[in-house]
Write a structure and sequence with these properties.
This protein is mostly helical. Helix content is 76%, strand content 0%. The chain has eight helices and no strands. Helix 3 packs across helix 8, helix 4 packs antiparallel against helix 8 and helix 7 packs antiparallel against helix 8.
């Protein structure tokens, strides 16, 4: 959104057709790029990355800050989509499902006597969780965009 158009001193559009042509572009919801979900995937892999090497905490913290800065600056125009996605049941199901997958997989492996304790095991788990998160968030966004398009929002 351009701050120049929100200013009280800004001149109004002279032609109604020009104002109508601008309105759809502002209402259009831009999808989040798939590369942005890599940040979320990294955060979902954070536990296993930390277990693999405790020194990774500093890098994870720095990447968390980068994620926050990118979310609030570069992706600012797309926050509307993110808010609508979090209101939807499918995104919450994805989030709960990912937590359940992590806890369930670690519990099942521990009960079977194959607890993940090695660095390689935690790194493999981190890669799987990250890839799963990116794929599921991309899918949830796609479903949300289709639902919004069908509702005419």
């Amino acid at each position: 959104m351009d701050t120049m158009t929100l200013s009280a001193a800004a001149p109004l559009a002279t032609a109604p057709a020009a104002a109508a042509a601008v309105a759809p572009a502002e209402d259009e919801i831009k999808p989040l790029p798939t590369w942005f979900f890599a940040f979320e995937g990294l955060m979902s892999a954070a536990y296993d990355l930390f277990q693999a090497d405790h020194r990774a905490l500093w890098a994870l913290g720095a990447l968390g800050v980068v994620n926050l800065v990118v979310s609030l600056t570069v992706m600012r125009s797309r926050l509307r989509l993110a808010k609508r996605m979090w209101r939807g049941k499918s995104t919450r199901k994805v989030a709960i499902g990912l937590v359940g997958l992590r806890l369930g997989a670690h519990l099942a492996l521990s009960l079977a006597g194959f607890a993940v304790v090695s660095t390689a095991g935690h790194l493999a788990f981190a890669v799987v969780m990250s890839a799963t998160t990116v794929a599921l968030l991309w899918y949830a966004q796609r479903v949300s965009l289709r639902a919004l398009a069908a509702a005419g929002a």
